[in-house]
């Protein structure tokens, strides 16, 4: 494909359904991070427990493996607009309720867990929508734009969360979050066409279990799923140790924040460069190298390098997340079209579960060895994963 024929960011942003999905998802992700910051602050203020405050961040991941497998077919059987609007309204209602009353901590954690149940089907529907409305390389470029937008939304949510909680308090911050989600639901209802569902019948749970078994039994699909699950699990496990690492090194909290931001910034830059300048075939061939790039810089944190070098190493590592662009089209083409929604739901559920388990495993390791060595080991595991998957990906 020549440069003049290459799909650009502008091309995908002109696609109406994708444009509406991108805008509303960015708003909702920002609102979700704002909700998490506000609730974590509220829980810590009322209990003084860092563990309970940390659970606010992690509990939403817990049910996703189960709901993603059991209810995966909903992403195909339900009209995309209906499922997205319903999920947004339920999330907004739950967030608004937490802002209007001051429930016990166990109620807060229960609500967070229930909201997390909606994640896999919502992500699966978004993946199915992109695969349906973006063909060829436009799908890969669209994935890149969506990923960069979600990273920016997360960074914006973290910044907005701290500012909002300080300015208006946790309750009002929660109401702002709820309002943003409800506005997004209204925008989807008004702007997105009522695209059809895939016809289906029978028990959803039974179909979810059998469909997941079929997808995992297929060698090609299984390899592509593992390639998208394992590297992020290792790197997110390392990422969860960054603040502890920085404070143990005697860095300031500002420096710790800069280190924490370096990885997503590197991810945004890496995805932009790979999507913009590499042709589709080159992206596919570069997948093992980019997975290795995720891990290669991390052993550098085992040494007493200055904070600027730490940020640079983490940014380079983040750029390796662009490996997903080389897998995106392969995964879309490998799964049955009638089960695209379920396939993307399973992908999302596994990814979220892996990212939930990673911090627990690497946090436990950091109790036994120096934190820098635990981060380095995550990098080594990532590089070994790239080497192990290289023949299968080819």
What does this protein look like?
With 394 residues, the chain is an all-alpha fold. The protein folds into two domains: 1-201, Up-down Bundle (Growth Hormone, Chain: A), CATH 1.20.1250.20; 207-394, Growth Hormone, Chain: A, CATH 1.20.1250.20. It contains 19 helices and no strands. The protein is globular and about 60 Å long. 50% of the residues are buried. The mean pLDDT is 86.
Query: What is the tally of helical segments?
Result: 19
Number of domains: 2
* Series of H and E elements: HHHHHHHHHHHHHHHHHHH
Which secondary-structure class do the elements indicate?
Answer: mainly alpha
In terms of per-residue confidence, which ranges show pLDDT below 50 for 5 or more consecutive residues? none
What is the count of β-strands?
0
| CATH topology (fold) name of the largest domain | Growth Hormone, Chain: A
Roughly what is the average pLDDT, rounded to an integer? Answer: 86
Helix content: over 70%
The fourth-level CATH homologous superfamily of the largest domain is MFS general substrate transporter like domains
Overall geometry: globular
Question: How does CATH name the architecture of the largest domain?
Answer: Up-down Bundle
CATH C-level label of the largest domain: Mainly Alpha
